[in-house]
Amino acid sequence: xxxxxxxxxxxxxxxxxxxxxxxxxxxxxxxxxxxxxxxxxxxxxxxxxxxxxxxxxxxxxxxxxxxxxxxxxxxxxxxxxxxxxxxxxxxxxxxxxxxxxxxxxxxxxxxxxxxxxxxxxxxxxxxxxxxxxxxxxxxxxxxxxxxxxxxxxxxxxxxxxxxxxxxxxxxxxxxxxxxxxxxxxxxxxxxxxxxxxxxxxxxxxxxxxxxxxxxxxxxxxxxxxxxxxxxxxxxxxxxxxxxxxxxxxxxxxxxxxxxxxxxxxxxxxxxx
Length: 272
Hints:
The chain is of the alpha+beta class and about 270 residues long. About 45% of the residues lie in helices and about 10% in strands. The strands form two sheets. The chain has a four-stranded antiparallel sheet with strand order 2-3-1-6. It is globular. The N and C termini lie far apart (about 65 Å).
């Protein structure tokens, strides 16, 4: 009958629209905003930016101020006298401060990424993916009332959950011809030493909690019951382990002793 044919066509259309959602074939929704949580056209974009009502990931646009970006020529060469070692140390200090502060105040972080792009919509963007959506929501509400380095913080929930889709593959292979103005993420890596400290500390905490649970039954309202009620973390990213590598990145010249790191932690008061 006509009604059955109409329903069948409607079902196929719904399936097709769902299959192209957030892709370049989607003429309604902005694929760049869906993939990277930012768009160079901003509010002037001809396509919709569907802001999530819940997400594990928050975005703090333009939070990281790279001192080298303010001293570059048109071809991207640096005019400042900052060495690569000093630059890595400056970035590691920033990353450790933000990561530690957010994790202590709002909850466990699965990964944190900082854009090294130069375009206005990506420069200095900080993406933080929490383990739980409610922690991300709590962070957004609180951070919009706070300041960092004399600047007000703007925080929002981001649609990005899989950073592999958001990153520029050519950049990762050292072949991106668009440089800092590429519209996909160029993630700035932290030093290996800092990555081991931040993410290794989290693994140690998990092992410690696991041993404590084995000695005593879980209490109602604990993290474990919260995870259990969520069906084993159905909204949490299934690519956590794969994505974790991107949060810390590769090497860099930002090494140093643990005593220096501890002194940085003590000096951290007041900036954030």
